[in-house]
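This is your field. Pick holes in the following sequence-structure pair:
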Amino acid sequence: MASAPTCIALVSGGIDSPVAVARMVRAGWQIVPVHCSQEPITGTEAEDKTAASLSHLIESLDEDGLIDSNLRVVTVGETLAKFTDPAAHRDYFVHMKRLFNSIGSSIAEEVGATAILTGENLGQVSSQTLGNLGAVEEASKYRILRPLLGLDKQEIIDEARVLGTYEISSGPELCDALGPDRPTTVADLARLRQNEEVQGGLGNLAKECLESLRMRSLDGK
């Protein structure tokens, strides 16, 4: 029997991404979870919720051991702070997602994954408009899996409740700690690349973040 395909799952402390993981586990995918921690801008709350949600899914859903028992944590807070200058701040959330995809692509190459999984949902937040999703995806070397793309928020919440991850994931979202009041909804790819080049280039920024990579065990949590 052929081995299951593998994807990098970009998992936040929010409601959506654990639901996306559960859907892909049911579809027979191996999951390598990655959390981009915004420390020291924020605390460890998002990481803790991510680990708790994944541990719950391992115990309650993952009979075949498809979810990796280690959460890869990469610290990105100081790098994201570089995109709060006036020239780049309106594009902050797009830069954030592009950085996550670049980090995910590097890890995918190391572990032999063929795709990157996200909990993105069309139009739910500014970085997930049609005008921004393409620019976000352009930063990935691998295809993006978005199993929640066409769902509305209530459908995702209902599914999270059934899975048992809703209460774990509930609480304030911390990803907008440095975000602008009026984020762009239609990305200018040339401007994004220029902003990133000023900071040394997206690939180099991801490489610097990856120096912080650590493993957090999901066993017994």
